[in-house]
Amino acid sequence: MSSYDLFSPKFKRNPFPTFAAMRRSHPVYPHRAPSGDTIWYVTRYHDVVTILKDNDHFVKDVRHARPDAASTADPKHIRDSINKNMLFSDPPDHTRLRSLVNQAFTPRRVADSAARIQAVADQLLDTAVKNDPFDLIADFALPLPVRVICDMLGIPPEDQTQVAQWSQAIISPGSRNLTFRMRKRYIREFVRYLHGLFAARQQAPQDDLITALVQAEEAGDRLSEAELSSMVALLLVTGHETTVNLIGNGMLALLQHPEQLAWLRGNLGEMETAVEELLRYNGPVETSTTRWVARDTVFCDQLMRRGDIMRPVITSANRDETVFDHPDTLILTRTP
Description:
By secondary structure, the protein is α+β, with helices and mostly antiparallel strands. It has 2 domains: 1-60 and 291-307, 2-Layer Sandwich (Uridine Diphospho-n-acetylenolpyruvylglucosamine Reductase, domain 2); 75-284, CATH 1.10.630.10. The protein is 54% helix and 7% strand. It has 16 helices and 7 strands. It has helices at residues 9-13, 16-25, 45-53, 67-71, 80-83, 93-104, 107-128, 136-141, 143-153, 160-171, 180-203, 209-215, 225-256, 258-266, 271-281, 314-317; strands spanning 28-32, 38-42, 58-59, 291-293, 297-299, 302-304, 309-312. The strands form 2 sheets. The protein has a 5-stranded mixed sheet with strand order 1-2-7-4-3. Strands 5-6 form a two-stranded antiparallel sheet.
């Protein structure tokens, strides 16, 4: 079987030719990690969709695939303070968490957030354009999601810079040269801070998302303290990373395709369709969150063992030539 370069700087700069070759020749490709784990890279659109929908064979909670992970799990482990959320759970736990969290995301709260997002974006841009040139990522893409999410949660403005630093320790410790011990310390500080906020909201509720999460209840069930801190971490981390990457990748794509940028400037009413295409062309995440093979199974004629790691490659699926016409071309008028 051919070997593919999946980690070099060259690949990171432009992974799409490699993914195209994998779709043609090895659409379900096994990579042996230094740890000895088998990691399956899945690159075709319909195969990726199948894995993401199959909660029986491919699970998000490692304990459902590796008994040793369940037997050694420590309920007080720092990881459980940020990972007990929907992103790392399977039904029925996922169903329960989603039902409770939905209590907090009322239609009014979602509608009110649109105006706040616009106000923060306008303020950041008004400040940024005073600099010539300005840094799109540092001056706009990075602060936008942090400020919006912190405002929604009810984190005081004077704490938001520190919360952003804690969030970065969770998202990308390597970019800040954090050791494993330093990262654990930052996460503990973050969790202690959140626990203090939860206690304060229980004593003095406010019109914010943390209060809504603390008060969320269904059939007498509430989110535990670990689930609360995990949900806040999920909002900060996933909302932050995806927004920054989409703004950066999207603007780069537009600058590389000036005719598409010119069209968009003249057709701002088509922004929603354009954003969908930017998400497809070079989206904010390369792969989905990790799935684990729950039991020995055959998928696409490949024997997968219980505990194997699955990597559904979303960026490859979105360039699948059997699904999209001219997949390597940015076409802002494209419709599914």
